[in-house]
Amino acid sequence: MLLQPLPEPVAEQAGVRLLLLRDDLTHPELPGNKWRKLKYNLQEARRLGHHTLLTFGGAYSNHVAAVAAAGRLTGLRTVGVIRGEELAHQPLNPTLAQARADGMQLHFLDRATYRRKQEPAVLAELLRGTGPAYVLPEGGSNALALPGCAELVTELRQLTAFDYLCVACGTGGTLAGLVTGLQGPEQALGFAALKGADFLRTDINRLTLAGTSNTYPNWALHTAYHGGGYARLSPELRQFIRAFRVRHGVLLDPIYTSKMLLGVLDLLARGYFRRGSTVVTVHTGGLQAWAGFGGEP
């Protein structure tokens, strides 16, 4: 685990120690939070005797790509249920093409049916076509995803004390896991990559409280830094990613971590963080997404 200082002028002016946790370097094919969320799910699939993983995602889903790679690495069969009609995804974009190359069977659902994917009747119909499978939710966010993400906090605490831990949010599973691993005054901040993501607060509470009586007041969700919506790469965000790479030698992904860091720098300028505090930002990977945007900036 590598912690990289980020000597940003806005952090120095705020009197804040700003660090980047390079969780994107943890595994060459399953970097960052995707591996952490899959770790205990893969163990459970094996324990239950499953040989197939079935999961859901959009056409550029990092999670779909990670499940396909995990299947190839572990010998498990994988099925990806993709949002949208098949003809709309022809030819396959680089994410789906790589997933298929990794052995994933792609199954396309029209958007109306996809919205009902959690209904028992829809899921039963899918499983009739694929055979028995261990079902992973969209984004991999379920109860078994949390302990893998909580381990990041334990590993980080061995390197440095910190006050704030910042992470990008898609489905909320990573933030929920981090929250359960915090201690004392440590706080977690999530930065939504989706437009209109207020619903994530409910989802995160549902995940963290499942099966327990614990309450977690040590986190907050920021929803103003989505940059126009999921997978929207504005010219301003692209320029920020370029400039960040020049300053720090780190390539950010175009969907998640780049938006989170923009948000953190804006909050620093606004005096959000306590002077003298340590703020750790998490690079969760997702660099495969650049193929869908014509390559690195």
Write the layout of secondary structure elements.
Elements: E1 3-5, H1 9-14, E2 17-21, H2 32-47, E3 52-57, H3 62-74, E4 77-83, H4 94-101, E5 105-109, H5 111-114, H6 120-130, E6 134-135, H7 145-157, E7 164-169, H8 173-181, E8 187-192, H9 199-209, E9 219-222, H10 235-248, H11 257-269, E10 278-282
Provide a concise account of the structure shown:
One of its GO terms (molecular function) is D-cysteine desulfhydrase activity. By secondary structure, this protein is α/β, with parallel strands linked by helices.
Oligomer: single chain
If you compute it from the alpha carbons, what radius of gyration comes out, rounded to the nearest whole angstrom? 19 Å
Average pLDDT level: 94
CATH topology of the largest domain: Rossmann fold
Cα shape = globular
Strand content: 15-25%
Q: How many H/I helices?
A: 11
End-to-end distance: 26 Å
Count the strands?
10
Helices and strands: which structural class? alpha/beta
The biggest beta sheet reads:
6 strands, mixed
Amount of helix = 25-40%
Strand order, largest beta sheet: 1-2-10-7-8-9
Order of helices and strands: EHEHEHEHEHHEHEHEHEHHE
Family: Belongs to the ACC deaminase/D-cysteine desulfhydrase family.
Pfam family, one: PALP
Cofactor: pyridoxal 5'-phosphate
Keywords: Pyridoxal phosphate
